[in-house]
Amino acid sequence: MLAALSLASGGSVAAAETDLAGRVHVAEQCYAAKAEFAELARPGTQEAGFLAPLLASFVGSLVQGAVSGVAGAIDRAASEHTFKASGTRGFAHGKVRRSDEASLTPFSYRDGARCLVLAVPDTDRAGSRGVVAIDAASDLSSIDAVAPSTSRADLLEVMTGPLGLRNLPLVYAEIAVVPDRQGVRIVPLKVWYRKALPKASRSRTQRTELHVALASPGYSAEGDPLGSFYAFSRFRLPRMRPGPTSVLDQDDLRDLNPIFHAGRPVAAVDTALVAELNGAVAAHQTAKATTLKAQADLRAAQADFEDEPTAAHRVAVETRSAILARAKEAEQRAGVARADLPGEGNSRLTARGRANARVTFLTIRDENRFAKAISTALGAQAEGVGTAVAGRLAPSPAWSADDTAMVTARTTLDSALVALEAATTEGDPVKIAAAEAAVLVAKAKVNEAAVALGKAPPFLDLDL
Questions:
Q1: How far is CA 427 from the centre of its chain?
Q2: Whole-prediction pTM value?
Q3: CA-to-CA distance for 29 and 92, rounded, in angstroms?
Q4: Were 173 and a residue from 118, 162, 167, 417 both cysteine, which residue would form a disulfide, CB within 3.0 to 4.6 Å?
Q5: What mean pLDDT is reported for the chain?
Q6: Integer Cα distance of 69 and 217 in angstroms
């Protein structure tokens, strides 16, 4: 598991001076926002991606390239114009599930909901301004501003346990990662800016942001050690002034819109395991059918011998008897192999779907320069995504017209979302209106393409 990675670098001394190491923990529940996370993750609210499996590898590679470019561009701008803290962690995104024994394919892979927890340690010595030791008799009343009294013990447990904190953190955040029809939703549930980051203003209200990047392990073509990106979200938070009660909860964060919600490509090792396990089930079924056929063939040969006891019919009976014996042995072996298949919760099935997460909290030093840098970077990336769509969308002969329409619609939406983010950052109302209209059309076309493929439309709240 990734315990730590180098912070995304901007390559400059100034960037290094404004970067701070955070700590990330990934769990199957949140702590300060336990109830909110449980509601997002409850059964029935999670649905598999709507793109046809035929298109998954193509769309995955195209979106990964776009997400990597956007994430890199934003990170470079952030390194030059912000004070930031970033942490990374590897985690298991899902598991292989075993369902109805009567099915020929009882095994399937599913991503599960996860909570990303970011904490930025307060490394000042005890007695320094604002330092609150967790294990001392210090005033921990500010915890009540972050979590309900019923969650206080859970919050302190994750701070002192997985996060390894001795003092209350400078920053604490919880973000839900939930699979849905669009691939994966990234939803911030809690942000606590308790104490100013080093060199950031202690008293001034500032613009803050939260960035979340998800990647498949392995070095990407872009050289980022986090891996090949499949999702990146930039949340522009309300202005915050550091303090014990400076907390944003789900209501404050509800209307924030990220850039990408791409789905995580399932690794070959996970699909291979599912194929292996379901193959054992199918092999047992085939062996049973083979035995039944061998029994029927033997009865037919015996009937022929009774009607006409010739040497040829005797040989046929002996041959069919030998075939049946081998079939029964094969069925027994296949039955043993099936009986030995792992059950629900077995270690072979859990902790699958390896992924890496990077969570970054930042305060903006110069809003105008940062906005200009972001707008320029995103504008270039939007153009790049559009070029990729036009240049790489070469339909396979195996695709139907509806398959091609879905790829076109989804990748066009990705490009439109990046363009909207660039226009919003620039602040030009005319450009924003045009970009919003383009996103609306792109979402409508995705709905249309989904319906044509027999899938539920993912965007049900379009204002049309």
A1: 30
A2: 0.71
A3: 14
A4: 118
A5: 76
A6: 17
